[in-house]
Amino acid sequence: MISKYSEELRNTAKAMVAEGKGILAMDESNGTCNKRFEKLGIAATVENRRTYRELILTAPDLGKYISGAILYDETIRQSTANGVSFVKVMQDSGMIPGIKVDTGAKDLVLRNNEKVTEGLDGLRDRIAEYYKMGARFAKWRAVITIGEGIPSDGCIEANAHGLARYAALCQHGGLVPIVEPEVLIDGNHTIERCYEVTEKTLHEVFRQLAVQNVAYDQMILKPSMVISGADCAVQANVEQVATETIRCLLNTVPPAVPGIAFLSGGQTKEKSSAHLNYMNANFRSQFPWRVTFSYARAIQQPALDYWRGNTANVAEAQKLLVQRAKLNSAASGGTYSEEMEKQPALV
């Protein structure tokens, strides 16, 4: 059965990975946002979260480099201080509103140190509500941990099945699903071990998507890069990360998928840009899909660090945000360089 939204979904998916643009992930939960605020001495209040999100979404020219933003449930219901809904702010800036719909990773029962993402209950109705509110894509994140004896086949299969069920419900309800299987950077594993787990995970994800009749040309993949564990004694260089990541994706991702938008997954903002840039600068002729970014902290953190809850800092913080988006836009075209990091943040 084909979704009545198929043409709209295809067009939205293409727009999400338009040339020179990426997707901003600003869907951190209230708890996560509060922790980031507390580290910087910002009061963890609803109003401060709203103000910070307004800072992001009203940043001048952000829409030049960002095709859409993933919002949290609280955010999609909020408005600017002047009463303009954030959804309208985004639409007026040429950005597509998106929404996080999973309810988080929980312990996978009868397993050690493994997680499964929940949120399928009631999802059909939530998708219908979000579509009416103006959302046109959604996100569901699954997490795969590499460790002693893990990930298990059961963990990979459970998470892939959840992603596939979510994606099918999204396409049925008019939202482009961002399918996000994140192989965590935590641990001391080598890049070779990361490749092995990532390839196995992606194979299972696309097998499950096929079983659930998900249309590949109406979705976006948001994977992690193939990279050394954060505690690994030998850290792979930029060339190795880019080469192994693209090799893995070419072996697993169907050509019909319109785009791959990487998560940064705990990398530094500079490494996130450098890895993406190397892929596009050296392997672009091999891509059947667009390869771009869907970063959170790797774009937001400089702005948050500068703002610190101070109204007087908003304009400069917005410049830092847009500058980071601009640098990743360049990386998505293979034109980023370390020298660009030294340029002043001018909007």
Mean pLDDT: 96
Give me the CATH architecture, please.
Answer: Alpha-Beta Barrel
- What is the number of E strands? 10
What's the CATH H-level homologous superfamily? Aldolase class I
Please tell me how large the radius of gyration is.
Answer: 19 Å
What's the tally of helices?
12
**Domain count:** 1
- Helix content percent band: 40-55%
- Model regions low in confidence, pLDDT < 50 over at least 5 residues: none
Alpha carbon gap, first and last residue: 47 Å
Task: Please state how the strands of the largest beta sheet are arranged side by side.
Answer: 1-2-3-6-7-8
> Could you give the order of the helices and strands?
HEHHEHHEEEHEHEHEHEHEHH
Let me know the largest β-sheet: 6 strands, parallel
Molecular structure report:
α6 packs across α7 (153-173), α9 crosses α10 and α10 packs parallel to α12 (314-331). This protein is an alpha/beta fold and 347 residues long. It contains twelve helices and ten strands. The radius of gyration is 19 Å and the shape is globular. Strands 1-2-3-6-7-8 form a six-stranded parallel β-sheet. The chain has a single domain, classed as TIM Barrel. The model has no long low-confidence stretch (mean pLDDT 96).
